[in-house]
Amino acid sequence: MRNQDLKELQIVQLLSEEEGLTQRDLFLRLGMAQGLVNLYLKRLARKGWIKLTTAPPKRMLYWLTPKGMSEKAQLSYDFVASSYRLFREAHKNASNTLHALALKHKARRVVLYGADPLAEVAAMSLGENRQQLVAVADEDAQGQAFLERTVVGIDALDRLKFDAILFVKHARKDDAILLKLLATKGRVVNLFAPGDARAPARAHRPARKDGA
After folding, report:
1. What values do phi and psi take at 193, rounded to 5?
2. Measuring CA to CA, how many Å separate 51 from each of 11, 46, 54, 131, 136?
3. Is residue 166 part of a domain?
4. Residue 33: which residues within 8 A CB-CB, separation 6 or more?
5. Pairing, β 188-190 against β 193-198
6. Is residue 97 part of a domain?
7. CATH number, domain at 9?
8. What is the pLDDT of residues 149-168, one digit of tens each?
9. Residue 153 domain boundaries
């Protein structure tokens, strides 16, 4: 689905849930810039999807038209269809990557790095390859609950026993640094570039509790 269609769907969805919203209501709830919301509202009005009424003091209220309701249903269908295609592609990619890890590197115990939606897709693929999720790590989400686990930081990986780290965090500008740091903890495979399997800088052995 195009970004423009997605924004229009977000607006008409809000107007279908609560009629008579102001432009301020919309941009605050959508988290979009006011100028951008104004642009989309004008476009939707030209299409006949929404109508405007005035209310004191000098406020414009926006309402969804019958045509807008019909178009919302079509946009919703398109969104679900495109999301399902993306999910299938992500699931296939994660399953293939995990299968290769199990086959080539005998990786049965896996850590997921990234408390992101893609991690949930990857977690579904673990069972298909008879692999176990050891932990979810993410510096930005430490202490939060995710996949029925408490997210840990990178340093906590020293205390865990695992065979590979699957990097599933959405790309960030410092990914290269993060991947190098993770590689000091064990073998890392980036789901966004599965051919680039980073070998660990040292064999991974969890720290013994007795300090030996």
Report:
1. -150, 70
2. 13, 9, 10, 54, 47
3. yes
4. 27
5. antiparallel
6. yes
7. 1.10.10.10
8. 999 999 999 999 999 999 99
9. 92-198
Neighbouring C-alpha atoms within 13 Å toward the C-beta of 3: 2
The CATH number linked to 176 is 3.40.50.720
Regarding beta strands 21-22 and 59-64, do their DSSP bridges make them parallel or antiparallel, or are they unpaired? antiparallel
pLDDT tens by residue, 52-107: 998 877 788 999 999 999 999 999 999 889 888 988 999 999 999 999 999 988 99
According to the model, what pLDDT value does residue 199 have?
56
Chain position carrying tokens 């178009």:
71
Helices 3-17 and 66-105: crossing angle in degrees, nearest 10, is 120
How many angstroms separate the CA atoms of 121 and 95, rounded? 9
Looking at 28, 47, 64, the residue that finishes a domain is 64
Any domain includes 79: no
Is 113 found in the same domain as 38?
Answer: no
- Count the domains in the chain: 2
Contact 108, 163 (CB under 8 A): yes
Q: How far is CA 207 from CA 139, 153, 157, 173, in A?
A: 20, 15, 9, 31
